[in-house]
Amino acid sequence: MDEMFKPSRRAFLRGSAAAAAGTVAGAASAAGPDPLITELQDWASGLGVGVDETPYGLPIEFESDVVRRNVEWLTASPISSINFTPIHALEGTITPQGCAFERHHSGAIELRKEDYRLMINGLVDTPLVFTYADLERFPRENHVYFCECAANTGMEWAGAQLNGVQFTHGMIHNMEYTGVPLRALLNEAGLNAAGDLKDKWVYVEGADASSNGRSIPMEKALDDVLVAFKANGEALRMEHGYPARLVVPGWEGNMWVKWIRRIEVTDAAVESREETSKYTDVYEDGTARKWTWVMDAKSVITSPSPQMPITHGQGPLVISGLAWSGHGQITRVDVSKDGGITWQTARLGKQGDTKALTRFYLDTVWDGAPMLLQARAMDETGYVQPTKEQLRAARGENSVYHNNCIQTWYVNAEGVAENVEVS
Amino acid sequence: MSKSLNFLLPGLGGAGLACGLAVASMYHNSGEARIALLEERLAQVEGHETSARKLAKEEAARATSLEAKVQEVQAAAAERIATGVNLTAPAPVPDGTLGIGRVAQAEEIAAWDVDVLPDGRGLPQGTGNAFDGEEIFADRCASCHGDFAEGVDNWPVLAGGFDTLGDKDPVKTVGSYWPHLSTVYDYVYRSMPFGEAGTLTPDETYAIVAYILYSNDLIDDEFELTHENLGAFEMHNKDGFIVDDRIAREHSAWRAAPCMENCKEETRVTMRSVFLVGTPPEGGTESVMNTATAEGLPSFTAEGPSFIPAAAPKAEEDAQAAPAPEEDQAADEGTQLAAAGEKVFRKCKACHEVGAGAKNKSGPQLNGLLGRTMGAVDGFAYSKAFQAAFEEGRIWDEDALAAFLAKPKGFMKGTKMLFSGLRKEADVTAITEYLKTATE
Fold it and tell me: What is the pLDDT of residues B233-280, one digit of tens each?
């Protein structure tokens, strides 16, 4: 008892955490019995909703805040804009399609399967046109891959900006795709006409007004690129390119052309608007890097985070986060609670697939003291996720793309988290 | 053998006793006969025993072979699990073709294959200059990009920005940043104007591209841009790009065994989030500037935080716990409709402001719209169509607004408004009600 009143830090912590946890503790250990248990509840007595009430099920109303959201002032119009996946409230690794972020350059279009055509032309033996039904006749594969916008975390080049992991890191989703390897389609058209494939490209474009054309080197096109028509087992959503989109594993989301309508084999990069004026990285001296396709290893703590404060007071705490690398598998994630002075190796939920999200956990005990939470990912190439300081030293702050910095959340004694930068 | 005999003996004994009582006078002879019988019996029993043993042996052999078979199957299954790749395989690519799809026709390829390479390959025949381009640009492009390609609101700036690429916020325009002129033609011809892509002729496109160059002081207004000279045109930033070298410059450096302990002596918060982002239940976000500073936050060492800041006073929980007021049954239907309309209006907010202090953006402000003359807002550059409607004195009434909102370009051919229209009648009604509430 006496010890409790010693003016030690520990005693202070106990006191403040207890105050913060007041309501929760109250409900769990109130003097009287819990009426939710002792009294007959409506749901335990009356009847629930019948089958077919919602032919296609939606999340229960209590989860209605777990939605993708945009930040209006970031772009000129919602038609050419971006929104963010609520990664703070998701667990595991698969992103449900309905809350997976959207990025359109001229709006999401409604394109029926019956109206869908895919053309392969250019340096091929026979230029071909496929219907949607044709695509389903090619041998197909299933793979889980992350799709990350090159501008994810882009605001952070200028310092801690938006307060929420949904907004700093939410331009990412991770789905199981079903699709036809691009190499199978190219094989069908024949690549003899292309000659030496080493310096050849495929130019891919969508059926929407923006067309979002991008050039992809042939080596990647023949490697793991898919023309996908299903995600997480069901048809792609309109906003993700129904009825077919390109999946370019590990590479920036802009290349994952939606509503893909044409694949042209060329002898040079087209240098389209999306690969010159956009999605190029300006450095300190004003020169820019182009063809920065791969998304480097990255991780972030999703809970606690600004939208996911600690509400249970001190005691057992699950620190949960996501890690990914465009170069392959995540092999390790470390977590720091003191802003990068001390690190602990986290537990991986399961060994992640290559170029897919991996969930990590640090199962810890919170003593109620403030924390500076950080995560640091390593991938199978041995690459270690850099700090903001390292990135800025290497590239300056002029870019908006490819920011894979270590992110910091300041968690105060009440469990409230905020996006901060540290020395 | 003895075991099976002992088992049979009590039976034989019983039979012998019965025999003895019945034929006592024939003791000697019958004794011999009995021995013979017993011997015969014994031979039979021995025969049974042998066959039983043989059977047992066979059964045992069968069990052994079955066991071996089970082991074989289990081993095969284990092997299959261990070397699963044998059964999971990538989609096969055949040696020849599968015969799926059909040959693309020349007209089809011509319709879709309009991309232009940096050297100008792919350009259609045509010509245009900035003098002609100025008018086309004003008509088709200026509502977003500004009369001088300077950009309206957040829409892209196309001119200027020279010598800003080394700044923290570089102004990346066609003039300052784009390395190839082919890209401008390629993009404008295929994807512009925003909302009317694919409607420009090659000559119009050459003229627009020429006007953009002119706005950047890269040509004079008489310069004829054609399919023959476009590919050779040298842009200001043509040498400004290098190919991705992250592997050589960064990956080689960022692969040291990461530090785990005492990685720095002390660390402190140097910057707090600039924007606090609210997440209202109806969706979207509401950002407000964060006024908090890093002062007063603890620094950290390996020992932990330097101090524990006092907890902020808790917000009155009663306020939150108070039951939500019963919905006013008598709430005016119009108010509810207007509230629904405010939500629908989010589709319009990128271009239109409404309410106190509303200003013109890329669309005119909408205060007091109903009853207003069309094309009447001061300081807004209306399309020719709305200028004509103004001259005619046409008025925004509910019917006109409903028709316009349902299909803007159908109602007012030539409007600059890019929005394609509200599909639901209920949305039109709601938004009309909402706009009625915005009178100043």
Answer: 999 999 999 999 999 999 999 998 999 999 999 999 999 999 999 999
Instruction: Indicate the class that CATH gives domain B333-437.
Output: mainly alpha
Instruction: Indicate the range of A221-225, A239-243, B87-91, B393-397 predicted with least confidence.
Output: B87-91
DSSP letters, B175-194, are TTT-S-HHHHHHHHHHH-ST
Pairing of strands A162-163, B275-278: parallel
The answer to whether A179 touches A229, Cβ cutoff 8 Å, is: yes
Q: Is the minimum CB–CB distance between B379 and chain A shorter than 8 Å?
A: no
Could B109 and A290 be called an inter-chain contact, meaning their C-beta atoms sit closer than 8 Å? no
Count of residues making up chain B? 440
How confident is the model at residue B7, as a pLDDT?
Answer: 44
Q: What is the mean pLDDT of chain A?
A: 93
CA angle B153, B291, B350 (to 5 degrees): 20
Digit-coded pLDDT (tens) for A39-78 = 999 999 999 999 999 999 999 999 999 999 999 999 888 8
User: Is the Cβ pair B272, A420 closer than 8 Å?
Assistant: yes
d(CA A211, CA B113): 12
Q: Report the topology of domain B108-226.
A: Cytochrome Bc1 Complex; Chain D, domain 2 (1.10.760)
Provide ipTM, 2 decimals.
Answer: 0.90
Of B89 and A203, which is predicted with more confidence? A203
For chain B, the domains span: 2-84, 108-226, 333-437
Of A76, A161, A287, the CB nearest to B153: A76
- Interface with chain A: mutation pick from B260, B279, B344, highest number of A CBs within 10 Å: B279
pLDDT at position B407 is 85
Element holding A322 (H helix, E strand): strand A315-324
Indicate whether A28 pLDDT > 60.
Answer: no
The Cα of B61 is separated from the nearest Cα of chain A by a number of Å equal to: 47
Q: Which of A114-118, A136-140, A273-277, B368-372 has the lowest mean pLDDT?
A: B368-372
Q: Does B10 touch chain A (CB under 8 A)?
A: no
Q: Where are the domains of chain A?
A: 78-289, 298-420
Question: Is B324 a residue whose pLDDT tops 50?
Answer: no
Fold of A298-420: Immunoglobulin-like (2.60.40)
Q: Are A12 and B308 in contact (CB under 8 A)?
A: yes
Long-range residue pairs from B299-304, CB within 8 A, at least 24 positions apart, any chain: B299/B266, B299/B267, B299/B268, B300/A338, B300/A339, B300/A341, B300/A372, B300/B266, B300/B267, B300/B268, B301/A338, B301/A341, B301/B265, B301/B266, B302/A338, B302/A341, B302/A342, B302/B261, B302/B262, B304/A338, B304/A369
One-letter amino acid identity for B280? P
CA distance A140 to chain B (A): 6
Residues B278, A311: Cα–Cα separation, whole Å: 18
- Mean predicted lDDT score pLDDT of chain B: 86
Q: What is the DSSP letter of A89?
A: S
CATH architecture of A78-289: Alpha-Beta Complex (3.90)
